[in-house]
Amino acid sequence: MDALGEICKRYPLAPLTFANICKIGPQPERSAVFRVACTAIELQTFSIRPAERTWLRYVNEHTGIPYPIREPVTEPWHKVSLLVQIDLSGQPWPARLTQAARRELLNDRKPIYRVFDFVLRCTIDVLGHRGDGRGVSVGLDVLRSLHARVWEGSGGGGVGNELLQIEGIGEARLRKLADAGVRTVRRLAGLECYHIERLMSRNPPYGQSLLRQLAGFPLLTLRAESLGEAPPPPQQQQQQQQRTGRGLRMVRVVMGFENKAVPAWKGKTPWVSCVVEGLEGTEKGRLLWFWRGSVKRLDVSGGKEVVVGITGYQGCKLIRVTLACEVLVGTMVQKDFEL
User: Where is the SEC63 domain (predicted)?
Assistant: First the structure.
Protein backbone atom coordinates (compact mmCIF):
# COMPACT_ATOMS: atom_id res chain seq x y z
CA MET A 1 0.00 0.00 0.00
CA ASP A 2 1.32 3.51 -0.84
CA ALA A 3 1.88 6.26 1.73
CA LEU A 4 -1.47 7.96 1.08
CA GLY A 5 -3.23 4.64 1.62
CA GLU A 6 -1.49 4.24 4.95
CA ILE A 7 -2.56 7.75 5.97
CA CYS A 8 -6.15 7.00 4.98
CA LYS A 9 -6.18 3.86 7.16
CA ARG A 10 -4.86 5.82 10.13
CA TYR A 11 -8.01 7.95 10.56
CA PRO A 12 -11.70 6.98 10.84
CA LEU A 13 -12.82 9.26 8.02
CA ALA A 14 -15.15 8.72 5.05
CA PRO A 15 -13.49 8.19 1.64
CA LEU A 16 -15.05 11.43 0.35
CA THR A 17 -13.65 13.37 3.32
CA PHE A 18 -10.19 11.98 2.60
CA ALA A 19 -10.58 12.80 -1.09
CA ASN A 20 -11.44 16.42 -0.24
CA ILE A 21 -8.38 16.63 2.02
CA CYS A 22 -6.22 15.46 -0.88
CA LYS A 23 -7.67 18.25 -3.06
CA ILE A 24 -6.28 21.02 -0.84
CA GLY A 25 -4.06 23.26 -2.94
CA PRO A 26 -0.35 23.85 -2.29
CA GLN A 27 0.64 26.16 0.57
CA PRO A 28 -2.97 26.66 1.72
CA GLU A 29 -4.17 29.58 3.81
CA ARG A 30 -5.66 28.93 7.25
CA SER A 31 -9.16 29.58 5.88
CA ALA A 32 -8.78 26.75 3.33
CA VAL A 33 -7.67 24.21 5.94
CA PHE A 34 -10.46 25.29 8.28
CA ARG A 35 -13.11 24.99 5.57
CA VAL A 36 -12.03 21.46 4.63
CA ALA A 37 -12.55 20.44 8.26
CA CYS A 38 -15.98 22.13 8.38
CA THR A 39 -17.16 20.33 5.23
CA ALA A 40 -16.17 16.82 6.34
CA ILE A 41 -18.87 14.31 5.44
CA GLU A 42 -18.99 13.15 9.08
CA LEU A 43 -20.30 16.59 10.10
CA GLN A 44 -23.21 16.74 7.65
CA THR A 45 -25.56 15.17 10.23
CA PHE A 46 -25.41 18.35 12.33
CA SER A 47 -28.26 20.11 10.60
CA ILE A 48 -29.51 23.50 11.76
CA ARG A 49 -32.41 23.26 14.22
CA PRO A 50 -35.17 25.91 14.02
CA ALA A 51 -34.22 27.30 17.45
CA GLU A 52 -30.61 27.84 16.29
CA ARG A 53 -31.21 29.85 13.11
CA THR A 54 -31.43 33.33 14.64
CA TRP A 55 -28.42 32.66 16.89
CA LEU A 56 -26.27 31.43 14.00
CA ARG A 57 -27.18 34.44 11.86
CA TYR A 58 -26.22 36.74 14.74
CA VAL A 59 -22.86 34.98 15.19
CA ASN A 60 -22.23 35.32 11.47
CA GLU A 61 -23.12 38.99 11.19
CA HIS A 62 -22.26 40.63 14.53
CA THR A 63 -19.36 38.90 16.30
CA GLY A 64 -16.38 39.71 14.06
CA ILE A 65 -15.42 36.09 13.38
CA PRO A 66 -12.59 35.71 10.82
CA TYR A 67 -14.47 33.59 8.26
CA PRO A 68 -18.12 34.69 7.98
CA ILE A 69 -20.48 32.77 5.72
CA ARG A 70 -21.14 34.73 2.52
CA GLU A 71 -24.36 32.96 1.54
CA PRO A 72 -27.57 32.31 3.53
CA VAL A 73 -26.81 30.25 6.64
CA THR A 74 -28.65 27.01 5.89
CA GLU A 75 -26.15 24.17 5.54
CA PRO A 76 -24.76 21.86 8.27
CA TRP A 77 -21.20 22.99 7.55
CA HIS A 78 -22.32 26.60 8.13
CA LYS A 79 -23.44 25.64 11.63
CA VAL A 80 -20.20 23.77 12.32
CA SER A 81 -18.08 26.66 11.09
CA LEU A 82 -19.93 29.30 13.11
CA LEU A 83 -20.03 27.19 16.29
CA VAL A 84 -16.27 26.54 16.22
CA GLN A 85 -15.45 30.13 15.27
CA ILE A 86 -17.43 31.66 18.13
CA ASP A 87 -15.65 29.29 20.51
CA LEU A 88 -12.22 30.23 19.15
CA SER A 89 -12.99 33.97 19.17
CA GLY A 90 -12.75 34.07 22.96
CA GLN A 91 -16.19 35.68 23.19
CA PRO A 92 -19.05 34.31 25.28
CA TRP A 93 -21.93 32.85 23.32
CA PRO A 94 -24.52 35.49 22.40
CA ALA A 95 -27.55 35.29 24.68
CA ARG A 96 -29.99 34.52 21.88
CA LEU A 97 -30.68 30.87 22.64
CA THR A 98 -33.25 29.14 24.79
CA GLN A 99 -31.84 26.98 27.56
CA ALA A 100 -32.90 23.83 25.68
CA ALA A 101 -31.28 25.01 22.42
CA ARG A 102 -28.05 25.89 24.23
CA ARG A 103 -27.98 22.45 25.83
CA GLU A 104 -28.40 20.78 22.41
CA LEU A 105 -25.60 22.85 20.90
CA LEU A 106 -23.29 21.98 23.78
CA ASN A 107 -24.04 18.30 23.16
CA ASP A 108 -23.14 18.78 19.48
CA ARG A 109 -19.82 20.40 20.28
CA LYS A 110 -17.91 17.36 21.57
CA PRO A 111 -18.43 15.12 18.49
CA ILE A 112 -17.77 18.10 16.18
CA TYR A 113 -14.43 18.76 17.83
CA ARG A 114 -13.53 15.07 17.66
CA VAL A 115 -14.11 14.99 13.88
CA PHE A 116 -12.18 18.25 13.49
CA ASP A 117 -9.20 16.71 15.28
CA PHE A 118 -9.16 13.69 12.96
CA VAL A 119 -9.53 15.81 9.81
CA LEU A 120 -6.80 18.27 10.82
CA ARG A 121 -4.32 15.54 11.77
CA CYS A 122 -5.04 13.73 8.52
CA THR A 123 -4.60 17.00 6.59
CA ILE A 124 -1.21 17.59 8.24
CA ASP A 125 -0.09 14.08 7.30
CA VAL A 126 -1.24 14.48 3.68
CA LEU A 127 0.49 17.85 3.31
CA GLY A 128 3.60 16.42 4.93
CA HIS A 129 3.56 13.55 2.44
CA ARG A 130 3.52 16.14 -0.34
CA GLY A 131 6.46 17.97 1.18
CA ASP A 132 4.36 21.10 1.74
CA GLY A 133 6.06 22.75 4.71
CA ARG A 134 3.86 25.86 4.65
CA GLY A 135 0.75 23.68 4.61
CA VAL A 136 2.00 21.58 7.53
CA SER A 137 2.66 24.74 9.57
CA VAL A 138 -0.82 26.09 8.77
CA GLY A 139 -2.46 22.77 9.67
CA LEU A 140 -0.63 22.69 13.00
CA ASP A 141 -1.74 26.29 13.62
CA VAL A 142 -5.41 25.34 13.21
CA LEU A 143 -4.96 22.18 15.32
CA ARG A 144 -3.42 24.19 18.17
CA SER A 145 -6.20 26.74 17.98
CA LEU A 146 -8.89 24.06 18.05
CA HIS A 147 -7.56 22.41 21.21
CA ALA A 148 -6.77 25.69 22.96
CA ARG A 149 -10.22 27.09 22.03
CA VAL A 150 -8.58 30.33 20.86
CA TRP A 151 -6.96 31.30 17.57
CA GLU A 152 -3.17 31.37 17.50
CA GLY A 153 -2.03 34.98 17.40
CA SER A 154 -5.55 36.33 18.00
CA GLY A 155 -6.64 39.29 20.07
CA GLY A 156 -7.78 42.53 18.52
CA GLY A 157 -7.03 45.87 20.15
CA GLY A 158 -3.84 44.64 21.77
CA VAL A 159 -5.62 42.00 23.87
CA GLY A 160 -3.80 38.66 24.12
CA ASN A 161 -6.51 36.03 23.84
CA GLU A 162 -4.00 33.25 24.58
CA LEU A 163 -4.44 34.15 28.27
CA LEU A 164 -7.98 32.72 28.07
CA GLN A 165 -6.37 29.26 28.20
CA ILE A 166 -5.66 29.89 31.90
CA GLU A 167 -8.33 28.67 34.30
CA GLY A 168 -10.05 31.61 36.00
CA ILE A 169 -9.21 34.24 33.39
CA GLY A 170 -12.18 35.59 31.47
CA GLU A 171 -13.04 38.74 29.55
CA ALA A 172 -12.77 41.17 32.50
CA ARG A 173 -9.44 39.90 33.80
CA LEU A 174 -8.09 39.65 30.27
CA ARG A 175 -8.76 43.38 29.86
CA LYS A 176 -7.08 44.23 33.17
CA LEU A 177 -3.94 42.36 32.12
CA ALA A 178 -3.95 43.89 28.64
CA ASP A 179 -4.22 47.40 30.14
CA ALA A 180 -1.08 46.62 32.12
CA GLY A 181 0.77 45.39 29.02
CA VAL A 182 0.46 41.69 29.91
CA ARG A 183 -0.74 39.92 26.75
CA THR A 184 1.06 36.55 26.75
CA VAL A 185 1.26 33.61 29.10
CA ARG A 186 5.05 33.90 29.06
CA ARG A 187 4.84 37.51 30.27
CA LEU A 188 2.32 36.67 32.99
CA ALA A 189 4.43 33.73 34.21
CA GLY A 190 7.37 36.12 34.65
CA LEU A 191 5.58 38.40 37.13
CA GLU A 192 5.87 38.27 40.92
CA CYS A 193 2.85 36.96 42.81
CA TYR A 194 2.17 40.30 44.53
CA HIS A 195 2.27 42.08 41.14
CA ILE A 196 -0.34 39.67 39.76
CA GLU A 197 -2.56 40.23 42.81
CA ARG A 198 -2.31 44.01 42.39
CA LEU A 199 -3.18 43.85 38.67
CA MET A 200 -6.10 41.49 39.23
CA SER A 201 -7.35 43.18 42.44
CA ARG A 202 -7.11 39.90 44.32
CA ASN A 203 -5.79 38.96 47.75
CA PRO A 204 -3.07 36.40 48.59
CA PRO A 205 -2.58 33.55 47.89
CA TYR A 206 -4.14 34.19 44.46
CA GLY A 207 -0.83 35.13 42.88
CA GLN A 208 0.99 32.07 44.19
CA SER A 209 -1.83 29.76 43.06
CA LEU A 210 -1.79 31.24 39.57
CA LEU A 211 2.01 30.95 39.28
CA ARG A 212 1.82 27.30 40.34
CA GLN A 213 -0.62 26.71 37.48
CA LEU A 214 1.59 28.60 35.03
CA ALA A 215 4.67 26.63 36.04
CA GLY A 216 3.38 23.82 33.82
CA PHE A 217 2.82 25.98 30.72
CA PRO A 218 5.55 25.07 28.19
CA LEU A 219 8.02 27.92 27.71
CA LEU A 220 9.79 26.50 24.68
CA THR A 221 13.25 27.51 23.50
CA LEU A 222 14.78 27.13 20.06
CA ARG A 223 18.26 27.59 18.63
CA ALA A 224 19.16 26.89 15.01
CA GLU A 225 22.20 27.56 12.88
CA SER A 226 23.81 26.51 9.62
CA LEU A 227 26.87 24.27 9.89
CA GLY A 228 27.85 24.79 6.27
CA GLU A 229 28.53 22.25 3.54
CA ALA A 230 28.34 18.56 4.36
CA PRO A 231 31.50 16.48 3.86
CA PRO A 232 32.02 15.33 0.25
CA PRO A 233 29.93 12.21 -0.49
CA PRO A 234 31.28 9.03 -2.15
CA GLN A 235 32.12 9.45 -5.85
CA GLN A 236 28.92 7.84 -7.13
CA GLN A 237 26.72 10.05 -4.92
CA GLN A 238 28.80 13.08 -5.84
CA GLN A 239 28.19 12.46 -9.55
CA GLN A 240 24.47 12.09 -8.86
CA GLN A 241 24.43 15.40 -6.97
CA GLN A 242 26.16 17.10 -9.88
CA ARG A 243 23.50 15.76 -12.28
CA THR A 244 20.57 16.77 -10.07
CA GLY A 245 22.05 20.00 -8.74
CA ARG A 246 20.90 19.12 -5.22
CA GLY A 247 23.67 19.90 -2.74
CA LEU A 248 23.67 19.20 0.99
CA ARG A 249 24.06 21.60 3.92
CA MET A 250 23.92 20.71 7.59
CA VAL A 251 21.73 22.57 10.10
CA ARG A 252 21.84 22.25 13.88
CA VAL A 253 18.49 22.54 15.70
CA VAL A 254 18.36 22.62 19.52
CA MET A 255 14.91 22.35 21.14
CA GLY A 256 14.25 22.82 24.84
CA PHE A 257 12.19 24.62 27.49
CA GLU A 258 12.78 27.20 30.22
CA ASN A 259 10.54 25.52 32.82
CA LYS A 260 12.26 24.18 35.93
CA ALA A 261 10.54 20.80 35.47
CA VAL A 262 9.00 18.99 32.49
CA PRO A 263 5.91 21.06 31.54
CA ALA A 264 2.52 19.49 32.23
CA TRP A 265 -0.59 21.52 31.41
CA LYS A 266 -3.90 20.54 33.02
CA GLY A 267 -2.51 17.17 34.04
CA LYS A 268 -1.15 16.23 30.60
CA THR A 269 2.34 16.32 29.12
CA PRO A 270 1.98 18.06 25.74
CA TRP A 271 3.55 17.01 22.45
CA VAL A 272 5.55 19.40 20.32
CA SER A 273 6.25 19.64 16.61
CA CYS A 274 9.19 21.18 14.78
CA VAL A 275 8.88 22.23 11.13
CA VAL A 276 11.71 23.38 8.88
CA GLU A 277 10.58 25.03 5.64
CA GLY A 278 12.13 27.02 2.81
CA LEU A 279 11.33 30.72 2.56
CA GLU A 280 12.51 31.74 -0.90
CA GLY A 281 13.26 30.71 -4.46
CA THR A 282 12.26 27.35 -5.87
CA GLU A 283 12.17 25.87 -2.36
CA LYS A 284 9.72 28.41 -0.91
CA GLY A 285 7.21 26.60 1.27
CA ARG A 286 8.87 23.19 0.85
CA LEU A 287 9.06 20.91 3.88
CA LEU A 288 12.75 20.42 4.60
CA TRP A 289 12.45 18.54 7.91
CA PHE A 290 9.76 17.58 10.44
CA TRP A 291 9.95 16.21 14.00
CA ARG A 292 7.23 15.37 16.51
CA GLY A 293 7.54 14.08 20.07
CA SER A 294 6.62 14.50 23.71
CA VAL A 295 8.00 17.56 25.48
CA LYS A 296 9.65 15.03 27.82
CA ARG A 297 12.12 14.28 25.02
CA LEU A 298 13.41 17.86 25.27
CA ASP A 299 14.37 17.30 28.92
CA VAL A 300 18.11 16.85 28.36
CA SER A 301 21.03 19.04 29.36
CA GLY A 302 21.15 21.96 26.93
CA GLY A 303 18.04 20.76 25.09
CA LYS A 304 17.48 18.14 22.40
CA GLU A 305 20.04 18.65 19.62
CA VAL A 306 19.46 17.38 16.09
CA VAL A 307 21.66 17.83 13.02
CA VAL A 308 19.62 17.93 9.81
CA GLY A 309 20.80 17.59 6.22
CA ILE A 310 19.12 20.08 3.85
CA THR A 311 19.20 19.16 0.17
CA GLY A 312 18.51 21.37 -2.81
CA TYR A 313 19.61 24.48 -0.97
CA GLN A 314 20.82 26.20 -4.19
CA GLY A 315 17.22 27.27 -4.73
CA CYS A 316 16.77 28.49 -1.14
CA LYS A 317 19.24 30.32 1.08
CA LEU A 318 16.69 31.39 3.73
CA ILE A 319 14.84 28.86 5.90
CA ARG A 320 12.48 28.96 8.88
CA VAL A 321 12.39 26.66 11.89
CA THR A 322 9.16 26.62 13.94
CA LEU A 323 8.70 24.83 17.27
CA ALA A 324 5.34 24.74 19.08
CA CYS A 325 3.09 22.60 21.24
CA GLU A 326 0.33 20.82 19.36
CA VAL A 327 -2.56 21.74 21.68
CA LEU A 328 -1.59 25.13 23.16
CA VAL A 329 -1.34 28.55 21.55
CA GLY A 330 1.30 31.02 22.68
CA THR A 331 4.04 28.38 22.78
CA MET A 332 5.38 28.94 19.26
CA VAL A 333 9.01 30.01 18.77
CA GLN A 334 10.60 30.63 15.36
CA LYS A 335 14.04 31.15 13.90
CA ASP A 336 14.78 32.41 10.37
CA PHE A 337 18.34 32.22 9.09
CA GLU A 338 20.46 31.78 5.98
CA LEU A 339 22.02 28.47 5.03
Answer: 1-339
